[in-house]
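Dear support,

Our group has been running a series of protein-ligand predictions, and this particular one with arginine is the one our PI (initials K.S.) wants archived with full inputs and outputs. We had some confusion internally about which version of the output was final, so please treat the block below as the authoritative record. The input we submitted was:
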Amino acid sequence: MTNNFLKITMLALVIFAIAASGCTGDQTGDTIEETEEIPLYYVGTEPTFPPFEYTDETGEIIGFDIDLIKAIAADQGFEVEIQPIGFDALIPALQGGNIDIAASGMTITEEREKEVDFSAPYINAGLALAVAADNDEILGVDDLQGKIAAVQVGTTGSMKAHELLDAGILSEVKEFSTVDVVMMELISGGADVVINDLPVTEAYIKQQPGKIKIVDDKLTSESYGFAVKEGNKELLDMINTGLQNVIADGTYDELLAKYFG
Ligand code: ARG
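Confirmed final output from the archive:
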C-alpha cells in the first residue's frame, strides 16, 4: 500500500516535471532557432604573417589559419570572431580570458605548452635566414658573427636570435611587433639578417620581389597548433575533432591549394 502510493507519487512528479519543462520551452522562445544559441569564440591573431594571417585591401583579416579555424568552427557548430592582437600578447590574452583561441602560426613549443594547451599540429614550417638581395657576405648561420638580426617580438625567430646573441655570435637583436617592419629594417640596412618562418618570408618575397633573399636551409622544423587556455578541454576537443573532419572531407587540402598552391 505505502509502496504503491510512493510509486504513484513519483510518477506524478515525473509527469509534472516533463510538462513543466515543456511549458518553459514554449514560453521562452517562439522558434527553435532563437532558443538554440550558437556559441561564439574570440580568435586572436597577429595579422602580418602571410599566408597564414594578413589583411586584404578592405582591411579584413584573411589567411590559411583564419579559413581553417572558420572551417573547424562551421564543422563543430560554433562561431568565431577574429581579433587582431600583438603576437607576444596572445598567450596572456588566452590566460586572461580575453580571447578563446590563438590562431596565429604559433609553433608548439615546450615552454608554451606550460602556459597554454595546443591542438594537434595542423601544419609544419620552420625558421629561415633572410638577407638583403644584394648581400653576398652572409651565406648561412656561420656568417653571422658580429651581425645584427631583426625579428618579430615573442616568436621562435626571436628566441633563436637570442640564442645566437647569448652565444656571442650576433652582436644585436632588434625586435619589432609586426613582420612588415622587421622586413623594412632589413631592406633599409638597419639589420643584416632576419630570422623568420620560411613560408612567411617566401610570401613576402613573392609580394615584394628583388628586395630580400633566403639563405641557407631551414634552421628548424616547427609545427603550428591552435592554442586555448590551459584546461579548456571542451573547446580543444572540438578544435581537434573539427580539424580531423576538415582534413577528412578535403577542405584542408583546398585551403592548402588556395594559400600555398
Ligand atoms: N611560428 C613562430 C612562433 O610561433 C612565429 C609566429 C608568428 N605569427 C604571427 N601571426 N605573427 O613563434
